[in-house]
Amino acid sequence: MNVVKGSIVRSTAGRDRNTYYVAVEVSDRWIMLCDGRYRKLGAPKRKNPRHISPTAKVLRLEGMTDKQLRKQLAAFPTQNAGGNHDLMMDETER
Q1: Which of 40, 41, 64, 87 is 20 to 30 Å from 71 at the Cα level?
Q2: Which of 52, 32, 54, 28 has its CA nearest to residue 41?
Q3: Measuring CA to CA, which residue among 5, 8, 2 is closest to residue 72?
Q4: Cα-flanking dihedrals φ and ψ of residue 85, to 5°?
């Protein structure tokens, strides 16, 4: 599946792994990603395309604000503040 502008992707490598972003700019070498919270639309994160996994959902970015982007990404259940899902424990594991 190809990544296009507006695609929702999941980071698969780095300290932000398992964090969902939206692709705001796509080139052969880099993909610029935003999450609306830590990476705002005005200051996207540069990520290697090999380190992301695209989802089937694509958003229209025209006129979107950071707040609207956060709401769209909140629908994905594993989204959290730091992306460190391995460090989180369930109530039964404590």
Answers
A1: 87
A2: 32
A3: 8
A4: -75, -25
